[in-house]
Write a structure and sequence with these properties.
- The chain is 75% helix and 0% strand.
- It has 193 residues and is mostly helical.
- α2 (16-28) runs antiparallel to α3 (34-47), α7 packs antiparallel against α8 (119-128) and α10 packs parallel to α12.
- The radius of gyration is 21 Å and the shape is elongated.
Length: 193
C-alpha cells in the first residue's frame, strides 16, 4: 500500500521509459530495501511487461545485495533482450561468484560478442580469470574479436599471450591484415629479433 501511494504520487502513468527512469532512481537509493525495490519492480512490470529495463534495474540492484531473487529478475531481462551485453555481464559475475567458472565464461563470451567495444568486458573477465586460456574461452572464436583480445593483451604487456591469440586469429582468417601487422610488430619487438 505504501509503495502504491509512492508510485502514484511520483509516476503519473508515464511511458515505459519514464517509469524506468523513476525505477532507476528508486533502485539506486540505498535507503530503499531490496524487498521494496522488488515491489516497485513488480508494480512496473505489471504496467510494462515487455520492457526489459524494468527487470534489469531490479536485477542489478538485487545482484549488489546478493538477494536470492536476482536470477529470476535477470533471466526475465535476458529473455526480453537477449543481446544486451550488460545483462550477460551481470550473469557472468553472479556465476563466477558462485564458483561456476565454465558457465561464467560462457556469459562473459556473450557479453563480449554482443558488445561494440569489448574492453570493459575483457577487464571484467581478467579480474576473475586472468589466464589466457580463460580469456580465450570468454572471447568469440572470430578473427576480429581475437584481434581485439590480442590488442588488449598487448596493451597489458602480456606479449606472449597476445602472440598466441593473434596466431589463433590468423588460423581463422589468414588474410586479416591488421592481425598480421600486429603479429609482425610483436615479433619485431622481441629481444631475439
Amino acid at each position: 500500500v505504501a509503495l502504491s501511494l509512492l508510485v502514484a504520487a511520483d509516476v503519473s502513468l508515464g511511458s515505459a521509459d519514464s517509469d524506468a527512469q523513476w525505477l532507476a532512481r528508486f533502485a539506486r537509493e540505498r535507503r530503499n530495501p531490496p524487498d521494496l525495490v522488488i515491489e516497485a519492480g513488480t508494480h512496473m512490470r505489471a504496467r510494462h511487461p515487455a520492457h526489459y529495463l524494468v527487470h534489469a534495474l531490479v536485477a542489478e540492484r538485487l545482484a549488489r545485495e546478493k538477494h536470492p531473487a536476482t536470477l529470476s529478475w535477470l533471466n526475465h531481462a535476458i529473455y526480453l533482450f537477449p543481446t544486451h551485453p550488460d545483462l550477460h555481464l551481470i550473469a557472468a559475475e553472479l556465476l563466477a561468484s558462485a564458483g561456476h567458472k565454465s558457465q561464467a565464461l560462457l556469459e562473459y563470451r556473450l557479453a563480449v560478442e554482443y558488445s561494440f567495444y569489448s574492453t570493459r568486458f575483457l577487464n571484467a573477465v581478467a579480474a576473475r580469470f586472468p589466464a589466457v586460456e580463460d580469456m580465450l574461452a570468454a572471447t568469440p572464436a572470430e578473427a576480429p574479436r581475437l584481434r581485439e583480445l590480442g590488442d588488449w593483451l598487448t596493451g597489458k604487456n602480456r606479449r606472449a599471450d597476445a602472440e598466441r591469440v593473434y596466431e589463433q586469429a590468423i588460423l581463422l582468417d589468414g588474410e586479416n591484415v591488421p592481425t598480421l601487422q600486429a603479429l609482425i610488430r610483436l615479433a619485431l619487438a622481441r629481444p631475439d629479433a
